[in-house]
Amino acid sequence: MGAIRCDDERLALHLSGERFAAIYELWGNEKEAQEKAQDICYEQTVEFPGDLLPEGVIKSSVVGKIEAFLPAGQDRYRATILFAVETAGKDITQLLNVAYGNISIKPGIRLVGLELPASMLADYPGPRFGRRGLRKILGIPDRPLSATALKPMGLSPKELADQACEFALGGIDIIKDDHGLADQKFCPFMERVARCAEAVKRANQATGFKSIYMPNVTSRQDRMLDLALEAKRLGAGGLLVSPMLCGMDSLALLAEAKDLDLPILAHPSFGGIYANASQGGISHGVLYGTLPRLLGADATVYPNFGGRFSFSKEECMEISGMSCALLGNFEPMFPAPGGGMTLERTEEMIEAYGKDFILLVGSGLHRGTGSLRKNAERLIEMLSKM
Amino acid sequence: MGAIRCDDERLALHLSGERFAAIYELWGNEKEAQEKAQDICYEQTVEFPGDLLPEGVIKSSVVGKIEAFLPAGQDRYRATILFAVETAGKDITQLLNVAYGNISIKPGIRLVGLELPASMLADYPGPRFGRRGLRKILGIPDRPLSATALKPMGLSPKELADQACEFALGGIDIIKDDHGLADQKFCPFMERVARCAEAVKRANQATGFKSIYMPNVTSRQDRMLDLALEAKRLGAGGLLVSPMLCGMDSLALLAEAKDLDLPILAHPSFGGIYANASQGGISHGVLYGTLPRLLGADATVYPNFGGRFSFSKEECMEISGMSCALLGNFEPMFPAPGGGMTLERTEEMIEAYGKDFILLVGSGLHRGTGSLRKNAERLIEMLSKM
Question: pTM of this prediction?
Answer without folding.
Answer: 0.97
